[in-house]
Design brief:
The protein is mainly beta. The protein has helices at 4-12, 35-43, and strands spanning 46-48, 51-53, 111-114, 122-123, 133-135, 138-140, 148-150, 157-164, 179-183, 187-191, 226-233, 236-237, 243-245, 248-253, 256-263, 268-269, 272-273, 285-287, 295-303.
Length: 308
Amino acid sequence: MFPAITGLGLLALIAAGCETSHHHDHHSQGASSSSAGSAATASASTIMDGVFTPEPPPTPQQNTGPGVGYDKTPVIRGQKWRVHDKDRPVPPVVTPGARFSHGAPPPSDATVLFGGRDLSKWELADGKPAPWTVMNGFFQVAPKTKDIQTRQEFGDCQLHLEFATPSVPDGTSQGRGNSGVFFHSDFEVQVLDSYNNRTYADGQVGALYGQWPPLANPVKGPGEWNSYDIVFEAPRFDAAGKLSRPGYLTVILNGVLMHNRKELNGPTHHQATDPYKPYNSRGKISLQDHGNITRFRNIWVRGIGEYN
């Protein structure tokens, strides 16, 4: 088992080689009104005489309207809140730096799931080729074509992924820039345009969907690229199918810690709190088609070994 600091220490190393990245942080179709904020963020840090002096950018204003969610869903096991509870406090807004692991190159032992050219490592659930659209070094959801998943299965793993929600916001709450990163079909890290977009706390970007809100909301504006660095530890079951170790997720979004080896109390499902079901602790990584044209790039994964 990994101590709590392991996921954070592992992921903190990822950013070390990314200062010279030349990836653009906007969609090729043009920057949105929020792009000016990113330009200000990038210029807030200065380099003089070889010394890097970071200056934190101001926190943007966020929607503070009434709660959005439900009041008759099941209570989450081990918590006082209901699934998607409309009264659960939303996480505080944090303005991230201009970049963190954006453009992070894969380590030598990583499997590149998308390097900018094709979706050959992905498929539909029925095994047919992934029909999402590839262009200009990224791919985007083709609405109503269903989720895509990796052809390969993984156990405990470290995942790097970059995403951008549509530059022209459309919809509200869960209908805006919605997708998700699923491990083994049942454990979701939420993808959502949570920039000035009120929704239930456990459905925010970075949430362990339906269970745990993220510790903060550091999402960039519509049309800007965000970087996810995730460590997933699969649940374990004994020979009789009894849970012997729960699953855990460590999540960093744009350099801000969302979850530090947070325990999953079962699958992360909509309006439900379901128990674990036994399996062999290996599975595929999936991306969700929620009907929004969310974009992805630079996806790689590496297995996590065990200490001697």
